[in-house]
Amino acid sequence: MPSESPRHRPLRLAGVATLSLLLAACTPDLPLDSLDPQGPAARQIDNLFWLTFWIATAIFVLVEGAILVAVVVFRDRPSRTREPKQVHGNAKLEVVWTVIPALILTGIAVPTVRTVFDLTSCEADALPVEVIGHQWWFEYHYPQADVTTANVLVIPAGRQVCLDMTSEDVMHNFWIPKLNGKRYLIPGQQTTLTLEADEPGEYWGQCGEFCGLSHAIMRARVEALPESEFETWLVAQQAPAAEPAADSLAATGKEAFLGGACVTCHVIGGVNEVENAIGPDLTHFASRSVFGGASFETNAANLTAWLADPPAMKPGSLMPNLNLTNDDITALIAYLETLQ
Ligand code: CUA
Question: Whole-angstrom Cα distance, residue 21 to residue 18?
Fold first, then answer.
């Protein structure tokens, strides 16, 4: 085997890296796969994408084919006797190859513009939910039920949800690839996005706008439930927090919550009140599968690490290291786990 020239090594490495990236895109069941629509809005985008893709492919084949034919037929060779006919400056040809692309673009513009408007126009009976972006987590408010939650957006499957979105600090972008395209969350403005899942299930999302240090782990989780289960969930969320059993570890945790810095930023319904709380509402914290910008599974190990040093898990986190003792942490977790 001939030895590899050191000059070609970077090139070869770049080739392998590119190929790996391409092959990684073929992995089945990717949670953020935008080519796997699971709802009407995402399907509409998908249809538009494939329509445009195939038109572009046909144009690519025709143009590249014409170039290849010209290269072969009109190539210079000893047997050639005269120059091919020159068409530069031919007004009729210029008009033809300007008008054809203009017509194609106009043709594509019609379904494109219609789709753009459809994706953000809500049906009259859609379920309204307010989405508020924070560095670095999404807050959800159900105005009809007056329920506030975070990180996990619970929706009824098969029914349109109308998201009314804004941001508390910088620009964020709400994106659940399998359900709809991206839409900005802008401080001081309202934007609208529809969301609908065909089937119950879990759908992953990601903030789509660079919004600071922990943008990469500002994720979103949508949980679509059958309509009846959704109604049950909503009623349960309206209830105040469960009261821990007297003299239990959870009761000690509740005392630690009330006696510590937690109460300056977090609300637990029926326990404390905070004007313009800057942290997530914790009333039903344990009913959410993920926390911390939907990046960490809600379990004792992750909560222990989080409470010990939040910025270590989410760089730049507004929640500081509170220097909690191990006893405090254990008690707080016991209390959080009762908040179903
Ligand atoms: Cu929020 Cu990126």
Answer: 5
How much distance in Å is there from the Cα of 171 to the middle of ligand 1?
A: 7
**Residue 249: which residues within 8 A CB-CB, separation 6 or more?**
330, 331, 334, 335
Q: Give the predicted TM-score (pTM) of the model.
A: 0.87
- pLDDT digits over 32-81, tens only? 998 999 999 999 999 999 999 999 999 999 999 999 999 998 888 888 88
* Ligand 1 pocket, Cβ-based, cut-off 6 angstroms: 133, 136, 172, 207, 209-211, 215, 218
Which residue's alpha carbon is nearest to atom 1 within ligand 1?
A: 172
Report the C-alpha gap between 195 and 165 in whole angstroms: 12
What is the token pair recorded at 3?
Answer: 């030895």
Q: Strand (E) positions, the chain?
A: 127-134, 137-142, 147-150, 152-156, 161-167, 172-174, 183-185, 191-195, 201-206, 219-225, 290-291, 296-297
Q: What is the mean pLDDT of residues 300-309?
A: 95
Q: Following DSSP, what letter does each residue of 131-166 receive, concatenated?
A: EEEETTEEEEEETTTTEEEESEEEEETTS-EEEEEE
